[in-house]
Amino acid sequence: MYKRQVKGIYRGYKGMITDEIEEFKTQNVSNIIQRGGTILKTARCMEFKTPEGRKQAHDKLVEHGIDSLVVIGGDGSLTGARIFADEFNMPIVGLPGTIDNDLYGTDITIGYDTALNTIMELSAFWNNHVMARVEPPLVEKPDAVLESLRRYFGPADKSEPTVDLDRKFVVNLKEILTLKEEKRALDAQVKALETRIKSLYAPIVEEMGTACKGTCEQGGECFKVSYNPLYREGISKDRLSALRAQYPDIYDEFVDQTESRIFKVVKSAIA
């Protein structure tokens, strides 16, 4: 049974030369099948057109133990792959990926269908909303919508007067309160479960001491346990205040202030 490592190269041939190579696992590619574009990004690379540049790229592949490539691209990318394969005798699989759909021997290339669908969606959006002057629904993920609104409106202003909201939002506000009650109940259940789990593994941690791995076997079953450390870099509030007082220039250069806002709903009777 062969155990293969898969590595991703960012920015194509440019990333091969500049060593933008990292190991890819399941978590690196999860939840991307429905997304257009490429998580590996793209870039033009004039250096790869030269024998010296291709030699640099090959040396980096050897350093990473890469013995074969999968190249996704159009005519230029696949031409470069063919030359590279001939020069260094490296197995390369070429996948036709271009929105132009102009590669010989292919009916539909990767990206062509995405491009057509995007054009149709944009056309429908233009006709149904821009030209018709109809506000589109908020269909993106809520976090993305809220971030877009934050950037659009800018920082919060506490001096602004209270906004008299449209009565259509009463439905939203009532459901928010209901869902928050449900969430509180579920949070309490989760906290109780977490407490129970910790009480069960506390004596196991005591037996492991400083070790990070353990095993337990009984009746044909084997349990493998890991208790690995996590390291986080941070600075306490007191030290941050001291830094600001003693070295204000360094504080201003490296410490950024970010803004977040908390949405709360309180229900009361009208007096």
Task: Give a description of the structure.
This protein has 271 residues and is mostly helical. It has two domains: 6-143, Rossmann fold, CATH 3.40.50; 189-251, no CATH class. The chain has nine helices and six strands. It has helices spanning 12-18, 26-29, 51-63, 75-88, 112-130, 142-153, 170-208, 237-246, 248-254; strands spanning 6-9, 21-24, 69-73, 92-96, 213-218, 221-226. The strands form three sheets. A two-stranded antiparallel sheet has the order 1-2. A two-stranded parallel ribbon has the order 3-4. Helix 4 links the parallel strand 3 and strand 4 (92-96). Helix 1 crosses helix 3 (51-63) and helix 8 (237-246) crosses helix 9 (248-254). It starts with 5 loop residues before the first strand and ends in a 17-residue tail after the last helix.
- Which structural class best describes the helix and strand composition? mainly alpha
Strand content bin: 5-15%
Radius of gyration: 28 Å
Number of domains: 2
Largest beta sheet: what is the strand line-up?
1-2
CATH class of the largest domain equals: Alpha Beta
- Largest sheet properties: 2 strands, antiparallel
Structure at a glance:
With 271 residues, the chain is mainly alpha-helical.
Protein traits:
single chain, 271 residues, mainly alpha, Rossmann fold, 2 domains, two-stranded antiparallel sheet, two-stranded parallel sheet, 9 helices, 46% helix, extended
